[in-house]
Amino acid sequence: MTNRKITLLSVCAALLAICIIQGIFGAIDPVKTIKTEASPDEITITTAGETIELSIKNNLWYVGNDGYLANKADVDSMIKALQQIKVLDKVGRFGTVLDERYELSDEKAKTVTAKKAGKEIASIKIGKTSSTGSQTYALVNGKGDILLLSGNLSSTFGKSAVDLRSKTIYTVDEKNVQSATVTMGAKTWGIENSAKAGEKNNWVFTGTNPGFELDQDLAQAWIQNVCFLNINSWISDSTPLPANKLTSFQLVTKSGETIFVDIYEKKAGDSTQYIGTSSATTHKFDLTKYLTEKFTKNCEDLKVKAEK
Questions:
Q1: How far is CA 123 from the centre of its chain?
Q2: What is the number of other CB atoms lying within 10 angstroms of the CB of residue 58?
Q3: Which one of 70, 95, 130, 197 is CB 3.0 to 4.6 Å from 61, fit for a cystine?
Q4: 259 vs 98: CA distance, rounded Å
Q5: What is the pLDDT of residue 1?
Q6: Which residues contact 111 (CB under 8 A, 6 or more apart)?
Q7: On the CB side of 13, how many CA atoms lie within 13 Å of its CA?
Q8: What is the C-alpha to C-alpha distance for residues 96 and 44, in angstroms, rounded to an integer?
Q9: Distance linking the first and last C-alpha atoms of the chain
Q10: CA torsion sign, 35 to 41 to 47 to 52?
């Protein structure tokens, strides 16, 4: 074998070794994940000016102690971020000039603590968001290393207590609806499912018989609309209810639950405000005209249309 061939083979062997080493190191995930298996039943978010407490009761998350349900999607994102903290890099130690650079002082940082049965299971002191907006400088579980974490944690944990409140008043499976009733002034009408178990829905009028045939498809479409209520916004509990009650609505389920919704109308010049109350919440809420209209349905809207 010539010296030239030997040299070429040596070079090839060296390149192969380099490729193997790069492959090995390339296969190693540079992201370290700090995992917490336990699912919290309490999350506290503390800043210099506000403390937000989230807690679980009967499998439902609440914001504060006033009976406001928490938005499920927001809480799910928080739990995911707490259970899987992804560390990209270590950038320094806490207690140095880096505290201000990475906004980890008590005046600027946001501290999130998760507990299970009263025991702390995870904590993150959230500082500055990176220039890309997709990483966060933070301290984890009370340790002194300043870490660069994956994700914009300021966004995940940055909503106010008001913004974290769910805007869902109630949700009922449409298959579980037994009846729906509307009262406007002296007029009350409704529809009820007269079908037996296993039979196709058969909606019939209740209250004063309007004297025309009920369209089954239109009736089912209305039930689909009223089996849930997502509001526009919450309003102060001290807000006085207007004198004019626009409608009273009642939804009864096959499992025996009854949900009431009362909507009041307040006119001021050319504008109209719709204020609602419900048996599903102790708080008052604001409704848009569009949301109000599904509870002020006229029975005429559900009759069989005459063929042309």
A1: 22
A2: 5
A3: 70
A4: 55
A5: 54
A6: 45, 46, 47, 123, 124, 125, 126
A7: 6
A8: 26
A9: 98
A10: positive
User: What confidence score (pLDDT) does residue 21 get?
Assistant: 47
What is the three-class DSSP state of 308? Answer: coil
Specify the amino acid at residue 263: I
Per-residue pLDDT reduced to its tens digit, 132-176: 999 999 999 999 999 999 999 999 999 999 999 999 999 999 999
Q: How far apart (Å, rounded) are the C-alpha atoms in residues 214 and 138?
A: 62
Q: Which residues contact 99 (CB under 8 A, 6 or more apart)?
A: 105
Hey, how many other C-beta atoms are within 10 angstroms of the C-beta on 227? 19
Q: Hey, how many other C-beta atoms are within 10 angstroms of the C-beta on 103?
A: 16
Separation of alpha carbons 123 and 175, rounded Å: 42
135 beta partners:
150
On whether the CB atoms of residues 296 and 184 are closer than 8 A, the answer is yes
Structure tokens at 11: 């070079």
Residues 6+ apart with CB under 8 A from 300: 210
Amino acid at 62: Y
Q: What is the pLDDT of residue 19?
A: 47
Supply the pLDDT for residue 301: 93
Instruction: Specify whether the CB–CB gap between 125 and 104 falls below 8 A.
Output: yes
CA distance 233 to 192: 31
Positive or negative, the CA dihedral 11, 16, 20, 26 is positive
User: How many angstroms separate the CA atoms of 239 and 63, rounded?
Assistant: 21
- Are 121 and 40 a contacting pair, CB within 8 Å? yes
What is the DSSP code (8-state) at residue 152? -
Query: Residue 26: what pLDDT?
Result: 43
Cα 31 to chain centroid, rounded? 28
Q: Helix, strand or coil for residue 41? A: coil
CB-based contact 18:26 (threshold 8 Å):
no
